[in-house]
Amino acid sequence: MTLQKEITLPKNHADTLIRHAKQNEPNESCAILFGKNYDGRFVTIDICLTKNSEPSPVNFTISNHDLIKAYETCEKKNLEIIAIFHSHPNSAAYPSSTDRQYMEINPVPWIIYSNTNNEFRAYILESTVIPINVIVL
Ligand SMILES: [Zn+2]
Questions:
Q1: Residue 19 Cα, ligand 1 centroid: separation in angstroms?
Q2: Are 81 and 34 in contact (CB under 8 A)?
Q3: Cα(114) to centroid of ligand 1, in Å?
Q4: Could you give the CA distance from residue 132 to residue 16 in angstroms, rounded to a whole number?
């Protein structure tokens, strides 16, 4: 039996991500989450808000500059990148076909916040894209 995967998000980080999503309206916002992966239990310890370098209401792009900064932060704090966050300003928190393509390149959990439904949902790509629980603490 495999345990249901989950990702925990401290309330203050969840609030920061929601604020980031609202500030970037009408475009998508993005961020990188750092923490630890305990066998599929992903624990968020820190977050890095990134710029959507090609602002769009239906897509996001994290610049190489922001990615390199994120990897440096990981090394300094001895954490790993546990999830990629982005928001859907005008739709539900389900991965788009573009999201699914990029999930193949970045097989970490993906957290999507829907500005319209006010909710976080997370997914991970295994043989197919499966939902994982998001727990805001
Ligand atoms: Zn998306």
A1: 17
A2: yes
A3: 9
A4: 21
CA distance 10 to 102: 26
Distance 1 CA to ligand 1 centre (A): 31
pLDDT digits (tens, 9 = 90+) for 112-133: 999 999 999 999 999 999 999 9
Q: How far is the CA of 124 from the centre of ligand 1 (A)?
A: 13
Contact assessment for residue 37 and residue 9, using Cβ atoms and an 8 Å cutoff: no
| Cα–ligand 1 centroid distance for 94 (angstroms) | 7
Closest to 88 (Cα-Cα) out of 64, 130, 38, 123: 123
Q: Which helix (H) or strand (E) holds 71?
A: helix 64-77
Please name the residue that has the structure tokens 């977050």: 47
For residue 87, report the distance from its CA to the centre of ligand 1, in Å: 7
Q: Domains in the chain, ordered, with CATH?
A: 6-136 (3.40.140.10)
pTM of the model as a whole: 0.94
pLDDT confidence band for 4 (50 / 70 / 90): confident
